[in-house]
Structure formats: C-alpha cells, structure tokens
C-alpha cells in the first residue's frame, strides 16, 4: 500500500527525532511492502524564520492533503528566543493550535506506560509502582480555555486579563464517546476528570459523560476532581485505565503522567478527528536545552509513528513490530541519556547492563530489530 505522510519536523530536537521515526518507517515499508511518501511541512519557529508566520495556508493545505501527519515538536526557549517577543498569534505554538483547529483534531490520546526495563527511571517508590501502570489520557483538544475569547485591558485603571472557558454538550459527547470506545478495548474503566465543585463547564461535562456512560454498560465510569487526580497519579497510578478530561486539565495531567513513567522522551501521542486522519507527535516539547547535541530520545516519535500505522492506516501488525522492537532494544540495555539509570547519567559509559547511545544510534538499533 502507499501512504502520504505530511512531516512537520519543526524546531529544536524536532528534526533529529523525526529523522529516526522515518528511518524506522522506511524499514517497515521495506519489510511489509508499503511505500511511505513524505511531504515536508513548515510549522513553528522554522516557519516564522522562513516566511514570517508560524503556519501558512499552504502548510494547512499540505497537511489536509496527507493521509496523516507525523510531527517532531515546535517552539524554542520561551525566555530567550526572539519568537516569544512576537504577538501571541505569531508565536510558534499558535501554528499548532491553528492546525489542530483546522484539522478538527479534537481527541488527543497520550499513553503513559511504565516499561519493566525502565522502572529505575520512574521517580515513584517501588511500593507505589507495584506491578506498573498503563493508562491512556484522552484530552479534549479544540475547546475550553485555550480556545475561548481572551483579552487584556485596563478596567478602572487596573490592568486586567480575561480568558474564557467554553464547552458545549456536543464537544463533550464526541470526546466522551471516543474515550469509552477506547476503554472498551482496554481494561474497561473511564475516569472522567473535572472541577464540578466549582465550574459550570465541569458540571455540564459530568452530566454529558454520565449520559454517554449509560450507552457503555460494560465500561465502568467514575468521576474525579482534577486536584485529586493530580495527587492520585503519584499516589496510585495503577488505578487508572482511561482518563478522560478537558483541554487544560489534560495538558497538565498528561505531563504529570509522563513524568511518572520516567521520561517524557518515551511517550507518544495521537490527535484524531472524526475520520481516519490523525496528527502524531511525541508528548514532549522541542527541548531547546539539548537540541543539536544528538542525545534526544527518539522513542516517543518512533512510537507515535507506530500509533499512526495503527489508528490512521489500520496496520496493526506493523505497529506491533515497532513496539516490539522498542521493547527489545530496551531489554538489551540500550538507553538514551534521559532514561539512563541515575548513577550512570551523562557518563557516556557502558556498565554491565546498560549502554548509553545517541539519537541516531537508538533509531538504527530499533530499525535493525524490525
Ligand atoms: P520540553 O518537553 O521541550 O523539555 C522539558 C525537559 O524534557 C527538558 O529538560 C528536555 O531536555 C527534556 N526532553 C524533552 N523531550 C526529550 C527527548 N525526546 N529526549 C530527551 N529529553 C527530552 O518542555 P519545555 O522546555 O517546557 O518546552 C520547550 C519548548 O517546547 C517550548 O517552546 C514549548 O512551548 C515547546 N513545546 C512544544 C510542544 C509541541 O510541539 N507539541 C509541546 C510542549 C512544549
């Protein structure tokens, strides 16, 4: 089969990690007789540098013309990069927000999975980790606070900023259905996270989730306040299967969930719309602190490519092959710097059980095991 993949390499470590995902995809293509055609799409800081805006109409059209989009990451150092002196709508992140909206990517999936081999990298105590954890965070991505009206103005001589949090029942229903559909294929539990003791938007969220839950009797549904969820993620992460939540809560909780797995460099993500189309990217950002050093972990991007094969192209066998190759490489003891056992961090040395490798070497090792 032939597939058209839009590729947004982006900024910082983006181009380095995307190159490794393409390497692995090409190996899949070779082994399973598929052809992946890549179209480079400019977005983020690199697009600002090239054409003055973070996302052009041509870039949107190129993304829409693809079967799926694979992305690295966008943005720079928010304290020092000149991109952050621009008006908010011209900054790198504005490109991504616009693309998500244009492509109607309302469902963001972020797995947080603890690899047996990386238990040491997990910052939680062993008795908390227990048998490990495997959760999927389903975050609403095109509504809520990040897309509501905002303004900063003088009110009675005092500078005042307003952000608006809006959700309608249809937006809540479509994401809730996605969450229950996914839970049905997993351990059949949805934890819907809100702030229903304070926010009207959360009270509507809870009501609509209840209505959807009634159509899925085989899936259990519980509601949890967001502050409690933040605590439970570090107290007992094994209790979660699918966490369903709105945009801002999901932004924060999914980063917290990534951290308890030990490395953000391991976690993939998918953003889906109502069709088979999806945008696939690592959960982390552009990591400007390590950009260009050849040390970034490409596994999250490689696993995002596996999600693309599974969700957009229905190539489950091929996705399984990538995931198995990643597990194999970890089992053999290869680690990028972010997932090295703490005592060996930065030594560049091999001890009896682990060997530190760079970005390209990690990509090679995974591709070789496909
Ligand atoms: P970050 O995720 O880029 O970095 C946080 C820490 O994690 C850093 O120490 C970094 O070195 C490390 N890290 C991240 N990915 C890694 C990888 N693959 N391998 C090894 N280590 C990795 O978050 P930040 O520093 O808050 O943000 C930097 C920039 O990224 C900002 O401009 C931010 O807006 C942007 N950002 C972009 C996206 C996206 O493209 N979707 C997401 C989050 C942040």
Describe, in plain words, how this protein is organized in 3D.
It is a single chain. The longest helix is centred in the first third of the chain and has 19 residues, at 14-32. The strands form three sheets. Strands 2-1-3-12-11-4-5-10-8-9 form a ten-stranded mixed beta sheet, sandwiched between helices. Helix 1 packs parallel to helix 12 (359-368). The protein has two domains: 1-109 and 263-370, 3-Layer(aba) Sandwich (Isopropylmalate Dehydrogenase); 123-260, Isopropylmalate Dehydrogenase, CATH 3.40.718.10. It is built from twelve helices and 14 strands. By secondary structure, the chain is of the alpha/beta class. It has helices spanning 14-32, 45-51, 57-64, 92-102, 126-129, 169-184, 200-214, 226-235, 247-261, 299-311, 316-331, 359-368; strands at 2-10, 35-40, 68-73, 107-113, 134-140, 150-155, 158-163, 189-194, 220-225, 242-245, 268-272, 278-282, 334-335, 355-356. The chain binds nicotinamide-adenine-dinucleotide. Nicotinamide-adenine-dinucleotide (NAD) binds next to helix 4.
């Amino acid at each position: 089969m032939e597939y058209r993949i839009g590729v947004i390499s982006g900024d910082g470590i983006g181009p380095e990690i995307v190159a490794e995902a393409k390497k692995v995809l090409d190996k899949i293509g070779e082994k399973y007789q598929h052809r992946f055609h890549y179209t480079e799409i400019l977005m983020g800081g690199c697009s600002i540098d090239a054409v003055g805006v973070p996302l052009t109409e041509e870039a949107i059209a190129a993304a829409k013309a693809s079967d799926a989009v694979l992305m690295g990451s966008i943005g720079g150092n928010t304290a020092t990069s000149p991109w952050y002196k621009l008006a908010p709508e011209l900054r790198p992140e504005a490109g991504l927000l616009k693309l998500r909206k244009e492509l109607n990517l309302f469902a963001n999936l972020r797995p947080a999975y603890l690899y047996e081999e990386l238990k040491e990298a997990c910052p939680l105590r062993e008795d908390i980790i227990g048998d490990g954890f495997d959760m999927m965070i389903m975050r609403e991505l095109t509504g809520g606070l990040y897309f509501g009206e905002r303004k900063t103005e003088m009110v009675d001589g005092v500078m005042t900023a307003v952000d608006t949090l809006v959700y309608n029942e249809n937006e809540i229903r479509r994401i809730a259905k996605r969450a229950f559909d996914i839970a049905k294929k997993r351990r059949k539990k949805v934890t819907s996270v809100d702030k229903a003791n304070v926010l009207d938007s959360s009270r509507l969220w809870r009501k609509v989730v209840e209505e959807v839950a009634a159509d899925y009797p085989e899936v259990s549904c519980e509601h949890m306040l967001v502050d409690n969820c933040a605590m439970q993620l570090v107290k007992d992460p094994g209790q979660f299967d699918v966490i369903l939540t709105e945009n801002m809560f999901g932004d924060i909780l999914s980063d917290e969930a990534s951290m308890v797995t030990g490395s953000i460099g391991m976690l993939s993500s998918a953003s889906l719309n109502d069709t088979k189309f999806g945008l696939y990217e690592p959960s982390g950002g552009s990591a400007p602190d390590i950009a260009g050093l050849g040390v970034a972990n490409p596994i999250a991007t490689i696993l995002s490519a596996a999600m693309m094969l599974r969700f957009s192209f229905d190539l489950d066998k091929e996705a399984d092959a990538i995931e198995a190759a990643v597990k194999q490489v970890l089992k053999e003891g290869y680690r990028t710097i972010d997932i090295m056992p703490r005592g060996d961090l930065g030594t560049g040395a091999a001890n009896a059980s682990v060997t530190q490798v760079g970005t390209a070497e990690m990509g090679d090792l995974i591709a070789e095991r496909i």
